Amino acid sequence: MAKILITHPIDPISIEKLALKKIHPSLKPKKELTLVSEEVFYVNNGDEEIFYVPSIAIKQKPDEANDPSLDSLTLILENVKPDVLIVGNNAVPGKAIAAWRKAVGKVKKLLAIRRGVDTRAIDKQAARKERVAIGNLPGINSPFVARHMIEYLKIYRASSRSKIAIIGVGNIGKNIALPAIKHGLSVHLLSPSLQDSTVGEKILRQRKIPADRVTCADSTVNALVDANYVAIAVPWENNAGEKNKDIISLEHIESLAPNARIVSASVPRIFSVAALSLMNDLVKQEKIYIRIDTAKRRAVEAKIDYPNLDIGHDRAFASSECQQELDNAMLQKARKFIENKTLELVR
User: Fold this and answer.
1) Which uninterrupted H or E stretch holds 54?
2) Strand residue runs (E) in 128-205
3) CATH code of the domain in which 57 resides
4) Over its length of 347 residues, how does the chain's per-residue pLDDT go in tens digits?
5) CA distance 2 to 201
6) Which of 19, 26, 37, 231 has the smallest C-beta neighbourhood within 10 Å, fewest atoms?
7) What burial class does residue 118 get, using C-beta atoms within 10 Å of its C-beta: 0-12 exposed, 13-18 middle, 19+ buried?
8) Whole-prediction pTM value?
């Protein structure tokens, strides 16, 4: 019988649809759960068992070296021995992956699914070593994240031809660019994929972005100079596996138009320390607006050092509609893997 372990909160409606029921701590009817102290929800669908332990993500701390929830994750993987592990932005360290592989044996194919897009919290090196495939859910939450970013950017209040710089022109960036064009803003796009004009035109067509209504910037400097609005949606790692660390510097922030609004769905460290410090000061002086929506542990870390910034976590796709879409997609991916036993490649 296939086993799916979910360690990140899912939508209440999804819980109801799946008929997940809380197992009373004193009962522990499943031998797999005898050593598990976390609150567990469970359902047996005949050909699959689903174990739901949201407290793993809820209790997680920014300091992985001293985080008891990671020990709980390791223990649960060792005892439940799932075919598929589904996580949110909660970490999956190497020791948990190694323990999981040891518990299930060398032959069984395993999959860790990120209930979202960014897989940086999963130890990819350990996953490769232990032959654990990694999957994610690109494009599912993008429209919801874009909607959230537009709400905070307030581009519908913008004067015609105000400049908006969109850093990252994937599914999120596209869904910001199109309303910005419709509203009459001067739209400047920055993405490595748009640097070659021939390739860039093809990509714009694929994203249904009219090439004659946008400017494809050739550098971060040109994208951001005199920008009234900035939308940032880039992954922590680019396609080459390199980190997008410090891609926005102090000089870039200084070049923005007065009273600019910046909304980012990327991790805070895409800004340099100097840029973050300057933005923190400018917000206090009410000379700029910054909204960063990121993973919980990244938000907690950043808020300590930059208390004036508007930093939230996981709010960009907090709607029940978005959460249910993610839940449906993750289970479809898990069940397809279990059915086909196809080992996905891990970069």
Assistant:
1) none
2) 132-135, 163-167, 186-190
3) 3.40.50.720
4) 899 999 999 999 999 999 999 886 555 555 666 667 788 899 999 899 999 999 999 888 777 777 888 989 999 999 999 999 999 988 999 999 999 999 999 999 999 999 988 888 899 999 999 999 999 998 898 999 999 999 999 999 999 899 999 999 999 999 999 999 999 999 999 998 898 888 899 999 999 999 999 999 999 999 999 999 999 999 888 777 788 999 999 999 999 999 999 999 999 999 999 999 999 999 999 999 999 998 877 888 899 999 999 998 877 778 899 999 999 999 999 999 998 864 444 44
5) 45
6) 26
7) middle
8) 0.77
Q: What's the distance, Cα to Cα, between the start and end of the chain in Å?
A: 29
Q: CA-to-CA distance for 15 and 17, rounded, in angstroms?
A: 6
Among 323, 297, 324, 321, which Cα is nearest to 311's?
A: 297
Same domain, 198 and 308: yes
Instruction: Say whether both 244 and 231 belong to one domain.
Output: yes
Question: Are the C-beta atoms of 226 and 220 separated by less than 8 Å?
Answer: no
The pair of structure tokens assigned to 63 is: 């300091």
C-alpha span between 309 and 278 (Å, rounded):
11
What angle separates helix 94-104 from helix 68-80, to the nearest 10 degrees?
Answer: 10
Residue 347 lies inside a defined structural domain of this protein: no
State how far the alpha carbon of 272 is from the alpha carbons of 58, 292, 311, in Å.
29, 14, 16
Q: Which residue has the tokens 């714009």?
A: 204
Domain count, the chain: 2
CA 214 – CA 230 distance, rounded (Å): 15
As a whole number of angstroms, the distance between CA 322 and CA 6 comes to 17
